[in-house]
From TrEMBL:
Location in or out of the cell: Cytoplasm
Domain called FdhE C-terminal: residue spans: 228-317
Domain FdhE N-terminal: 19-182
Protein name (Swiss-Prot/TrEMBL): Protein FdhE homolog
Any single Pfam family the record assigns to this protein: FdhE_central
Keyword Cytoplasm: yes
Classification lineage: Bacteria, Pseudomonadati, Pseudomonadota, Betaproteobacteria, Burkholderiales
Domain FdhE central: from-to ranges: 188-226
The species this protein was found in: Caballeronia insecticola
Length: 326
């Protein structure tokens, strides 16, 4: 099969009325919108409301740090090399990761500490992170980005991931989308090479009615045809699942309608055995893929019981790994 690589000049000449391929993160609101949605979801009798409020404080801290942070942009030669080879333009898994990400981590810790969001156990975690050597922090960052679950510290990972998100969201917000190459690998962000967390069918303007998957690292959104699995690109065996209405005081014949109108569903694929959540902005205008994914653990449990696995984890909630009993 011949690989087609679209150069920046060619991208500029494409039909402007075509489906938007990307939505780059809006620097001024990338994390504040997430924080607001987390607080909104926490107020809806969510079983992990306390955790959602903590993560909202972390997202607010991210927005404040991002306002005064700029990572060095990659050299033009590096961008063009990645374009020629159809690779992510600023790959997160790289030997040249800017060590400033650790400064961002400490700024985030300072911010949430100042905001008074620390319980005694969380204060102990913050102290442990501050005392962790740079090499160990880098090793945790590598494990998170490479999804090496057995090496990840579940308690510290959300804060380390949050620092990495600030760095790559900063980069993505300053990249010209016309420079972003097309990738042949499905389910991978063309900006940073990370995996999407959830997807959203947007309303309004050029994006109306189109489904975008949101990168869990840099928040770039990539258009993916709704008839395809966003993980393996298959068009076979796609199904949608919503929270059961069994505990809702409605008639049996109305439950299908309740599920149909759900603003959040899980899109499963029989071909790869995975699922990824999808939200409909026309049913919940404030839907934010990362936040809504985090707040819907019940749906994760139901999908696990149905035999499906997540296509990608949420970087702010890592499962405990079973210990080796040997």
């Amino acid at each position: 099969m011949v690989q087609r690589i679209v150069e920046a000049g060619q991208i500029e000449s494409l039909d402007p009325s075509a489906i938007p391929r990307l939505r780059m993160p809006v620097r001024a609101a990338a994390f504040s919108a997430r924080a607001a949605r987390l607080l909104q979801l926490a107020e809806a009798s969510n079983p992990i409301a306390g955790y959602l409020r903590l993560m909202a404080a972390l997202a607010e801290a991210q927005q404040r740090v991002l306002a005064n942070f700029e990572a060095p942009m990659p050299a033009r030669e590096s961008i063009e090399l990645n374009q020629r080879h159809s690779m992510p333009i600023v790959p997160a898994l790289s030997d040249t990761r800017d060590p400033a990400w650790r400064d961002v981590l400490f700024m985030l810790l300072d911010d949430i500490e100042t905001a008074g969001a620390l319980t005694p156990p969380l204060a102990q975690l913050v102290a442990r992170l501050r005392a962790t050597e740079a090499a160990a922090l880098d090793a945790q960052a590598d494990a998170i980005l490479a999804l090496r679950f057995a090496e990840i510290d579940p308690a510290a990972a959300p804060f380390i991931a949050a620092a990495l998100q600030v760095v790559w969201t900063d980069l993505a917000s300053r990249i010209d989308m016309r420079d972003v190459p097309y990738l042949d690998t499905p389910g991978v962000c063309p900006v940073c090479g990370s995996v999407p967390v959830a997807s959203i069918v947007r309303v309004g303007g050029a994006y109306d009615g189109y489904r975008f998957v949101q990168c869990g690292l840099c928040a770039t959104e990539l258009h993916v045809v709704r008839a395809k699995c966003s993980n393996c690109d298959s068009t076979k065996g796609i199904a949608y699942h919503a929270i059961s209405a069994a505990d809702i005081d409605v008639r049996e014949e109305d439950r299908a309608e309740v599920a149909r109108r759900a603003p959040l569903k899980a899109e499963s694929c029989d071909e790869c055995g995975t699922y990824r959540k999808i939200g409909y902005q026309e049913k919940a205008y404030d839907f934010e893929p990362f936040a809504d994914d985090l707040a819907s653990l019940t749906l994760d449990l139901l999908m696990g019981d149905a035999g499906f696995r997540r296509a990608a984890p949420n970087p702010w909630l890592w499962p405990e790994q079973p210990r080796d009993e040997r």
